[in-house]
Task: structure prediction
Amino acid sequence: MAKKKRTPQERTIDPAVQKMLEIAEQMAISTAFDRADMLAPCPIGADGLCCKNCSMGPCRLVKEGDRGICGATVSTIQARNFARMVAAGAAAHSDHGRDLVLTLKAAANGEAQGYEIRDVAKLVKLAKEAGIETNGRTKEEIANDLADYYLSLFGQQEGEILMTHRAPEVRQKIWREQGVMPRGIDREVVDTLHRTHIGDDQEAWHILQGAVRTALGDGWGGSMIATDVSDILFGIPAPNVSKINLGVLQEDMVNIVVHGHEPTLSAMLVAATQDPELIELAHSVGAKGINLAGICCTSNEILVRQGIPSVGNFLQQEVALITGAVEAMIVDVQCIMQSLGEISQHFHTELITTSPKVKIEGATHLEFDEHHALDQAKELVRRAIENFKNRKQVYIPKEVTEELVPGFSHEYIDYAMGGTYRGSFRPLNDAIAAGRLRGVAAIVGCNNPRTQQDSYHLYIAKKLLENDVLVVETGCSALASGKYGLLQGEAAMEYAGPGLREVCEALGIPPILHMGSCVDNSRILTVLSQMVAEGGIGDDISELPAVGLAPEWMSEKAISIGTYCMASGAYVIFGGHSPVRGSAKVSGSDKVARMMIEGWEETYGGKLEFVDDPDEMVRKTLEHIDKKRKALKLAEYDPSKFGRSGDRRIYQVPVDVPLAEREAYLYGGVPTEAAEATTKPAS
Result:
């Protein structure tokens, strides 16, 4: 049944996207927002009550007492469906890590054109962790051996994945006791797919235990490897200044947009767009130069390292083409809409697929090979330049472009907190212990066209900042905050509570730290582990006043991320519809949901919950943070104790306010403009 068609303002809070949706409607071009309005989700499948794992079905459980043809119960079917989402998400992120390891090995052997070992210090550190000899050896020799070792972890059949030993000892003990310590990255994905086949694992809790082990193999295995190897090849991210939103496209330049998740090709495109011959070629066709920009997590990869501007997050890929200003959109893997092939036909844009895993109807396929990376990147740029002459009408919404400061790796946070001579998480822990920071929240995940784009991300982030919660973000969530100015240092003055504002001013950081792409959620695990190692606020991640949120999730990768964060001890809140939601018509259909909240909390100290209302998400987050603070016997959170030092608002006090009245003027509880402007998202 079709739903009511929403206005552009109901579909997104981004003014740039609103304008492009109006243009799309005038041109009769369908977008994800249109399709979300036309296609109502299947209520049975949405609750995880449909099984299609064999040809006896699909079996739809719609009333009390229903079972599948094989006899499968509601809880078995829901657990199997959830576990398969975890396996698919883990496979996608971990395969991303494998591809990077193969590039590292090729670079070490001089077989990957244009790539080099950029961070030797991190290479040596990781090699020592793996027991690889480093003394008297070249960086290439070390990198080759490290690549071989990492590749072995994908196929490892027994033992423990090395990076799990970075977790607190208490956490490792729990994993071993529960039998969920991952043995090998690929093995756990296969294990989950096997146990969810017809006639195999039928006990819901046991199925979920397999899903937990698979997710841990992703978070503390494949994804962590992806982040580490990216740092070796492209450098550890550090803060830089860049721009975001559709206005980064340039009317007088050749625009190339990269989209997907792999940093290998995009890094070479950065180099190719700076080639003097190609710049001269661009001039010869009437362009002022070459402009490279990104979408989604490929954007994040080159944003945090090279400061390449971002066109926006997941739901902006279609409207970027509708600007008519993109000569080439070059895609690799993950989160790429098939509709791009059709939409590109309305414009001069050439859509180019580059991965052996991805082909799209209507796109040109030019398979990327790291062995000839720079030459291929130059050829892709050349094609875009030659396409510039085919442009027609262009509309770029320039007025909503924002500046942002991304690039907060866990290494940089350690440096920023501790200073030049001794990196340390002690200042962060002390700020939490003193109540200057109420706690920490990680807001991650995608956009979903069934919600109002960016609204949950922005609303929840602002509410948490007001309550002195330091926020770290990755992926599309980070890009959402960037579009509305929350990734600027000045944002602390507008949005942060008094304690968080003091911390941001002292360290010179924004109130929200952009930590990278969605695969870089492994950096968040590292930060939490280092906070525990620093001491003073608990012996395990489960004791920290910290929460993870995915307000607008939509992908299987998000389910894997949420599961490994839960198993690491975190309380994880997903926004929107639950894939294991109970149905009033089906008895016992809330059993799996209760396992993931109550059962997992008892077993792992973390839990995973799906919450529809953003205010409820904020309330539950703060309630959990305060509960953990109380258990640690930390100072009670009291914002009135802070904000009286280093507050730049003192310079904004009118000159006619007497000195004796200035403190009352500043701290009299007058709401900031930001607080007044924070409105609840449209339902």
Notes: The radius of gyration is 25 Å. Residues 242-400 form a domain with the Rossmann fold fold (CATH 3.40.50.2030). The CA atoms of residues 110 and 140 lie 9 Å apart. The longest strand covers residues 254-260.
